[in-house]
From TrEMBL:
One Pfam family hit: DHHA1
A single MF term (Gene Ontology): nucleic acid binding
Domain DHHA1 stretches: 255-338
Coiled coil: none
Record protein name field: 3'-to-5' oligoribonuclease A
Organism: Thermogutta terrifontis
Domain DDH: from-to ranges: 31-172
Length: 341
């Protein structure tokens, strides 16, 4: 997912062992690709882009996920290549594959019903991801923790194979990178980010069109949900910590989907003086998914780890039992202490 994920914190940046990755891709014939639930453009974009690249290499590819493609992202899956795990075709594809590739996550909690499939997969398994933390998926890891998005790693693969960026690859990878960087505004953005974006634009991406497709295509339900989250915002420590919440009942009342909460927390940091943001979201009744975003010295992955979660320095997440008052008191207490350290 865009930025949050599970336990265990690595200290040194990880880089992809390219000769080894290319060797693994050469050695296998039937690829099964999957990515995380509550998918974003990086998940779907990377998955479809890698599928394209592998087909160009003459490989058989199937993409099987534990989700249906959200309406807002269906324009990326033009040919409806993404198969849902519950589809009849999925079982056959899983049985036929000689390698399973997990993209953009290394966390069981992000894999939904694909978790047991991955656990039980008896052949080669690899992970291609840019998140620092993760679980042991029993797979060989190809991680670049400095990459802005998993899409960056796939773009690098395209270059290393000497393939060119087709308009379709351009769209998939630009969408992956642009959204995982909050449209080129997060601290993961480097000069190389714009260089790659330039290359993808030359391949045929029309950035303003893509922006409108992604960000001016708001569903009314999500718009109303954002309004609730904004109206409930409160601050602590003289405005340095901002927090808000979304209750399970809000989804039905506004007509929003669970996936509509993505990115709302980043909006709270637009309030002047805020340095640390917390968002409590009750996706499952009685249980709060807490998201953390930092613009200061506070390490979100450490803060999330207190509650069994994890992620990056500037963005992380954890799940904390409710009710809201209890979850909020516990997390705010830890946040205040982290802030004052
Ligand atoms: Mn990502």
């Amino acid at each position: 997912m865009s930025c949050e994920q599970a336990p265990k914190i690595a200290t040194t940046p990880l880089v992809v062992d390219w000769p080894r990755l290319l060797e693994v891709l050469q050695e296998h014939q039937r690829f099964l690709l999957t990515t995380h639930i509550r998918p974003d453009c990086d998940a779907i974009g990377s998955e479809l882009a890698l599928a394209d690249v592998l087909r160009q290499m003459g490989r058989q590819v199937a993409c099987v996920n534990a989700f249906s493609v959200p309406p807002a992202l269906q324009f990326l899956d033009e040919n409806q290549e993404l198969i849902e795990l519950r589809d009849l075709r999925a079982k056959e594809e899983i049985e036929r594959a000689d390698i399973l590739v997990v993209l953009d996550t290394t966390a069981w909690a992000q894999l939904g019903d694909m978790g047991p499939v991955i656990k039980g997969f008896p052949r080669k398994k690899i992970v291609i991801d840019h998140h620092v933390s993760g679980d042991d998926l029993g797979a060989e890891l190809f991680k670049d923790t400095q990459a802005e998005a998993t899409g960056r790693i796939i773009a690098e693969l395209v270059r290393r194979l000497g393939f060119s960026f087709t308009p379709r690859l351009g769209k998939l990878l630009f969408a992956a990178i642009a959204t995982d960087t909050g449209w080129f505004r997060f601290n993961s953005v480097r000069a190389e980010t714009f260089e790659l974006a330039g290359e993808l634009t030359r391949a045929g991406v029309v950035p303003d069109k893509l922006y409108r497709q992604l960000f001016e295509n708001e569903r009314l339900g999500r718009f109303r949900l954002m309004g609730r989250a904004m109206a409930r915002a409160e601050t602590e420590l003289g405005g340095r910590i901002i927090h808000s919440y979304i209750l399970n009942t809000d989804f039905a009342e506004t007509g929003a989907l669970s996936s509509d909460t993505e990115d709302i927390i980043n909006t709270t940091l637009t309030v002047a003086g805020t340095e640390l943001a917390l968002m409590f979201i009750e996706h499952v009744p009685g249980q709060f998914k807490v998201s953390f975003r930092s613009r200061c010295h506070v390490d979100c992955s450490r803060l999330a780890a207190v509650f069994g979660g994890g992620g990056h320095r500037s963005a992380a997440g954890a799940t904390v039992p409710g009710p809201l008052e209890v979850a909020r008191a516990r997390v705010l207490d830890a946040a205040r202490r982290a802030m004052q350290q």
